[in-house]
Amino acid sequence: MSSPPAKKPKLSLPPPPATDGGESDDDLDTDTKLGILSSLFSLVEHEVLLEVLITAEGSLETAQKILGGGGAMEAAPQNSKRGIASSSGAQASLSSYLPAATSSSSTINTSNTSNTNNTNNNNGISSLMPRPQKGKPLLLFKPEHVAALTPCTLITGFLQGEVANELLLELVREAQGFVKKGSREVRFVLWGKEVWSRHTSALYVRGEGVEGEGGGYVEEGEDVWYTYSGMKEQKKRVFTERMERVTELVEEKVREVISERISPPIPLEMGRKKYESPHPWKTNAAIVNCYDGGAESVGWHADQVTYLGPMTTIASVSLGVGREFGLKRQSAAEGEEDGVVKVWLPHNSLLIMEAGTQEEWKHCIYPAPSVSTHPLSGSKRINITYRYYRPSLAPKYLPRCKCEPEPLPGVLRAVMDKRSGNYGRYFWSCQGAYQGRGESGEGCGWFEWAEWDAEGEVKGWRERRKEEREKETGWGRMGVAKRVESDGGEGSLQR
Ligand SMILES: O=C(O)CCC(=O)C(=O)O
Ligand SMILES: [Fe+2]
């Protein structure tokens, strides 16, 4: 269901005020200032501009700085003027997928614990840090503010304008087929609580696919349906060629961000060094989300780390209508808006949720009272979250609970209570508890500390894989003399 596009404020614009300190903007009234901002940032909702103006204490100059100088917020057609784009269908070199000059990005994370209003921190942040207001989430637009206050990195103007536009158009077309069993609503149950996701989404796998697909698959006639996060069911979709080319750029950028990070986004004692993969970041699957209008949103949640592993990094590309992405610590009380941060995700931006974000924070896409219309996608926003499903964490290799008659693969979580001596330790529990199953809503109540091998993979997975293969080939059961390899090895889909 899409809400009507926001009316653009009527403009009769005075000349923009001088921003070199020559002329003050004190004598302009708020409507005029909003009109000026609106003409400069035509795709940003009126409410957002107002919020920025308030944060900037009425200063047009500061508001413009917060909004990032215009380029990042603007419609894709403006961006597409930069550089040479490939015409649709024509193969372009990877570099032609990136904007001529990389726009705003801050690839260095500072400690996210300081919420100060410093004007110049060790990151060289010279723009004003937005001030938290009591009871109101802080809205961030600038990559350096996101880097300083959250465990994420924001890169705006990520792709060359025309590439972003083409990908947006392709995925809007793809998303027409996302309707799930006649419903446009997806329900997650997390720890007994319902999270309604009023948007449509689909899981895409890269190339050959992922061992276990993060949730296993079932075949129904010609169709192969995948589940992920243990709850959703989707038909198999494979990265399109265009997605594949963009994915290579995403991987390159994520590796750069990870290597340039100075201080970890989460405390070291939580074991980032211990658990984070020593291999360069890569992705083998993505969830493509489509939000049509401001009413479509996704509630507070953290992405399940069961199949991705501890300290996973997730990269998220946003296209089309800009929306607010919420971030709050897991420990924040329900309904408590203090300490909640909103990040504005404009068209053609890349948000990297770094190691620890899924363990220590929750995220959401806020519903919006209205959205500005995007010239190409109307009221729609497309989001692609790139993940790496670890072959060692395929459901069939996971420790199992004690549920009768069929024990189920466990759910992986971390102890997040800092007062606990086990802070940062991972454990397995029954997925029935995660989904609120059983009389008590706790499943079978099974709990086990997670143990890891020297390579940082879940202990015993190779043995379990061997057993699984033996079962599949009949080697162990039937005492067949010759072992038949059942699949193409790690990372490939077992059929
Ligand atoms: O749409 C977004 O930016 C976030 C989507 C998300 O949280 C998810 O797919 O898990
Ligand atoms: Fe998520």
Topology record:
Layout: H1 30-40, H2 46-55, H3 60-66, H4 76-79, E1 138-140, H5 143-149, E2 152-155, H6 161-175, E3 186-190, E4 193-197, E5 200-205, E6 217-220, E7 223-228, E8 232-235, E9 237-238, H7 241-260, H8 272-275, E10 285-292, E11 298-301, E12 314-320, E13 323-329, E14 341-345, E15 349-353, H9 357-360, E16 361-365, E17 380-387, E18 411-414, E19 426-429, H10 431-434, E20 447-449, H11 461-473, H12 475-478
Parallel strand pairs: 1-14, 5-9
Antiparallel strand pairs: 2-15, 3-4, 5-10, 6-7, 7-8, 10-17, 11-16, 12-15, 12-17, 13-14, 13-16, 18-19, 19-20
Notes on the protein architecture:
The chain has helices at 30-40, 46-55, 60-66, 76-79, 143-149, 161-175, 241-260, 272-275, 357-360, 431-434, 461-473, 475-478; strands at residues 138-140, 152-155, 186-190, 193-197, 200-205, 217-220, 223-228, 232-235, 237-238, 285-292, 298-301, 314-320, 323-329, 341-345, 349-353, 361-365, 380-387, 411-414, 426-429, 447-449. By secondary structure, it is an alpha+beta fold. The chain folds into three domains: 1-70, no CATH class; 154-392, Sandwich (Jelly Rolls); 398-459, no CATH class. A seven-stranded mixed beta sheet has the order 2-15-12-17-10-5-9. A five-stranded mixed beta sheet has the order 1-14-13-16-11. Helix 1 packs across helix 2 (46-55) and helix 2 (46-55) crosses helix 3 (60-66). The model is unreliable at 1-23, 69-93, 102-126, 180-192, 213-232 and 475-495 (pLDDT under 50). Bound molecules: 2-oxoglutaric acid and fe (ii) ion. Residues 301, 303, 363 line the site of fe (ii) ion.
